[in-house]
Design a protein that fits this description.
23% of the residues lie in helices and 21% in strands. By secondary structure, it is α+β, with helices and mostly antiparallel strands. The chain has one domain (3-190): Glutaredoxin, CATH 3.40.30. The protein has a 5-stranded mixed β-sheet. It has a 3-stranded antiparallel β-sheet with strand order 1-10-7, with helices on one face. The protein has a two-stranded antiparallel ribbon with strand order 2-3. The protein is globular, with a radius of gyration of 15 Å. This is Peroxiredoxin-like protein.
Length: 195
């Protein structure tokens, strides 16, 4: 699997609107999160070892920031013909198995993913209350946390304190500060585009 870095998007860019089905049977759009002070949009999937490693980190952050007014949403765009594990049915299974605590949407046509400019899983976008891009980067400075990608992922062991960059950006957003001046790209498997 090729390790692909996220690309830089102009800070302040408006969030593209979407209307996509979720594993809970509902459809979600930007308006679904209208009262949130911030919105974290994560392009992710079920099969990629980097995405798998990110799920517990993201659900922990979603729980921590829920009462602070920040919403999270995951979007899986991968072609299920190439990667059956990324099908909508398997998404429903993983939603329960991994205790995902925010909406997990399916971008079957991949149009929304293209509008955002997402390129890898996970690819993380943070928007402010006006839905302007505030942060696009990695979860932390121990990312990617995978030693091998030819099977189950193995988190890297670190004897230093990990800098929580996504968490720092969310706290900065809530404090009313300008976007972080340094935004390091996330990295993961490339999005599996339809052929």
């Amino acid at each position: 699997m090729a390790l692909t870095p996220s690309t830089q998007t102009q800070i302040g860019s408006p969030a593209p609107n979407f209307n996509l089905p979720a594993t809970d049977g509902k459809n979600y759009s930007l308006d679904s999160f209208a009262t949130s002070k911030g919105l974290v949009v994560i392009f992710t999937c079920n099969h990629c070892p980097y995405a798998k490693a990110a799920w517990p980190l993201l659900t922990k952050l979603a729980a921590e920031f829920k009462d602070k007014g920040v919403a999270f949403v995951g979007i899986n765009p991968n072609d299920e013909k190439q990667y059956p594990e990324d099908s909508f049915e398997v998404m429903k299974q993983k939603f329960a198995k991994w205790h995902i605590n925010f909406p997990y949407l399916r971008d079957e046509e991949q149009n929304i993913t293209r509008q955002f400019g997402a390129v890898c899983t996970p690819d993380i976008f943070v928007f402010d209350k006006d839905r302007k891009l505030y942060y696009r980067g990695r979860i932390n400075d121990n990312w990617p946390p995978v030693e091998k990608v030819d099977g189950e992922y193995e988190p890297k062991q670190s004897d230093r304190e990990v800098k929580e960059e996504l968490k720092g950006a969310l706290n900065s957003l809530l404090d009313g500060n300008p976007p972080p001046s340094v935004q390091n790209p996330s990295m993961g498997c490339s999005i599996k585009w339809k052929t």
